[in-house]
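pinning this so it doesn't scroll away 📌
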Amino acid sequence: MKRKICSVLLSTAMVCSMFAGMSANVCAEESELEHVDLTWYYRADSLPDQDAVFEKANEIFEKEINATVEFVPIAVSDYEQKMQTKYAAGDAGDINFTSSWCNNYAQNVAKGAFYEMDELLEEYAPGVNAFFTEDQWNAVKINGKIYGIPNAQIFAKSSNLSVRKDLAEKYNLDITSIHSLAELTPFLEEVCEAEGVEFERYGVASGWSSLIYAYGFDDISKYVYVKADDENIQAVNPYATEEFASYCTESKEWADKGIIPNDAMVKTDMNAELKSNRVIARARGVYKPGVEVQEVVQWGPGVELVSTMLGEEALLTTSGLTASINAIPATSKNPERAMMALELVNNNAELFNLLAYGIEGQHYEKIDDNTIRQTATDKYAGIPWMMGNTFNAYVMEGSPADINEATIEFNNTAMPSKALGFTFDIEPVKTQAAQVQTVVDEYLPALNCGAVENVEESLAEFNSKLEAAGINDMVVEAQTQIDAWKAAK
């Protein structure tokens, strides 16, 4: 069947200012489109009510672009391997989830797995094309070309600090005055001694990794960083930096004072500790508008939080923009219609919220026109950050009404890293990376928790083992690639 298509996709009120009144006309002029079937592979486990949700979504796809989309979730544990098999077989459908951490975007582009979409964006997705800033598009370009659309969400990188609101008020802490953990120390000393509570830090490697943005680092790979404001873009071993030494010294001082508990190394259930109300504060995850509301669900009943960003400013990095991307496989039989579908999910709020939250009355209830409460996440709970522009999403109960606008502003005012757009190909040093991982797993937890006798000696031993494992080879390889990238710009 042929259908006359001349439908206009209007951006929602939440993001209309970003488009300056522009609308995205999916056909530009009247044209007839044959009906097509598209396949969308994404990383998720199946849910009981997904077919009912997808049926309603296809009513919109049919009406707007005369297409049916088969949504195919692939189990989290299987996604990477199954997608690589599909690329090898030339059978990867029409839209795929890819990222810097799963189904690797840059590696797939290098293998020719994805369709170059610059012209498709201009012709079939003007709304998406206009939404992202030049710096943001640069982060996903490879050799000057775009092969994937970032799923608009919080992608500015920054370090978050959350403190229990009752204790902040009781001990007169102005959270907005805190920009480093060192500035928090006097408050922690007073409260921990008086209340018998503690700072959340456990025998895991994420303590340091949650704070690297506060120190101004851009993690171009897991174990090689650059300073985001370094004009020379010098690759470094982060564990040999002054910043890491300062962090470890501070952790040791906190452990000696009882701010970090002496049994931190053996604690494994962080959620249980949070719900016990024995935790005063934590520095974990990325700061973003409304984070205190989103994070509080992990804490005990009745707890309220105040939060702030550690460091001077949020950073715009390649890893932040490539954390969630939708790409069109090079073997797609309908790349134009696939791009129309991506334009639709990024601009049609009704469609996006259907895929993200399910069916009103079955999976969520509306509190007001733009605020919802989820009621049946066991039946259906989509993955908003994988399905398009999250700034079209309903506001979750308890979140600030302007959270979407505030997050867009936060993204757009982040400082671009000097390495923005660079992607480190770890393949030449993957053996060294595996060996470095083993050493980090051995030493970093104790350094995180301050559970060492002598920081200076422990750091020297740690870095000696890292060098033997090949971390300097990784730094040299990263610098070689950075220099080549700079020369090609």
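📌 and the second one:
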Amino acid sequence: MKIAIVGMGVAGGNTLRSLYEKNAVRPSDEIHVYEDRLTPGVGLPYQPDDDRLILNSFSMDVSLNPDDPDEYVKFLEEHYPGRFGRYEFTPRMIFGEYATQRFAPYLEKEEVQWIKKRVTRLTPILSDHHPDKLRFCVQVDQNRPGEIYDAVFLAVGHPPYADYYGLKGQPGYIHEPFPVSHLLEQIDPSKDRVGIVGSSLTALDVMEYLQESASFAYPLTFYTLHEPFATVKDTLYEGDEVFCTFDDAWIEAHRLPSGKIALDDVLAQFKKDLSDSQIHLDYIMEHFGTGSLYEVHQQLQQADEQLLKFQYYIALLSPHMTAIVNALDDRGRRHFFETYRPWYEYFHVQLSKVKMEKIWKGYLNGTIRFVREIVVIEPAKDKGVVIKTAHHRTYHADVLINATGFETRLSYAAAEDPLIHSLLEADLMMPSPQQDVAITWPGSQPLSRTYGVVDNLYLSGFWIGTTQYPNNNVQRAAQQGARMVDSFKKNNHR
């Protein structure tokens, strides 16, 4: 059997590892891994870059080995003795070193060939011997014939960066912020007015790098739609017991005759958990619910026990969210994503205290400023952009760095990504109601209007984010690699 893995970041690396550890490889198999980066296992987030770019999870929470939750901690103890503890945020590129060490040996397997090129096109091939079974043509050059595969694992990682203001190509607009170590090549700190649009984790990384790498003639400016931040992650909660009742048994016990669960039942249990844990949500929302600078300042001054406890509850809930979301009936699922998703993600995505202390210090000394409620960003007459706010104030940035995040709309991403375009054009995938890719679960196979379930095509990463929800951490990516292999084994009787 001929197998392709497209992408060798965390999800692709764990897919390759799982093929071997789950005994899914036969001696006659050929496995081709497509990855154009020179370092396997790192993808975009963990590539070599400035060491001030840090993970947003404690080192004890990011092991890639499901059988050893302390594997990353042990890696740090061996390679960086005394430098990092269990409750610390480590540089992303150090995690990348760990991921490379974890996955690189599998590229040396006899059945595996690493093709150091980027896949640009994937199309279906109807089998002459099995007309009901698809094969897949993978191309790295659209002007040359591709390779034909019986099964393809798509671990393509992040989509293109979003261009919400139509500025791509405008002089002074930096569309892709990474690697940050190259940003100063495009900036003159002595005269450029520099802005960052957005206040995501990426924006914080960019701001910290610029703040500590050069002295700027003008304040570095965050331009945001609303209050800029989430809550600060201080330390692990170690107080009274916190009760999170959700698990697979709870879901099975609350299934309706339709086999689904009701969102109202989920919300009722959520409220009961908080009550049993003596977590007061009204207090938390009142004091920490907007992401304002004032709230961040309060959190930096003193850790709040109620907030720490609630953050710990969210951490306990998070591993069960995929199962909960996929068990909801259609109405409940839509209502969750429309109403509760922004609220959940606000508390789920937490900010490093060390990083926020640096941002706050810059704000106090006038080297950083914030401009909120932007409504228009448009090209300036020569270089840079003009920013207008809801309060009729106008600002100019000679250099504007995009930190608005990735393009979440599948049809828009297809215009930038030839691989996504080819998959949609060939009807090998279709949009979900939330505008990512509709897949089976837990099989992770795309759904198609033409082919139904696309057998032996498997998808992981950002584009299944509302099915594998939330999927914005390394352990979720690793788990998805293993899950795809389980589906592959079942489909191919291995």
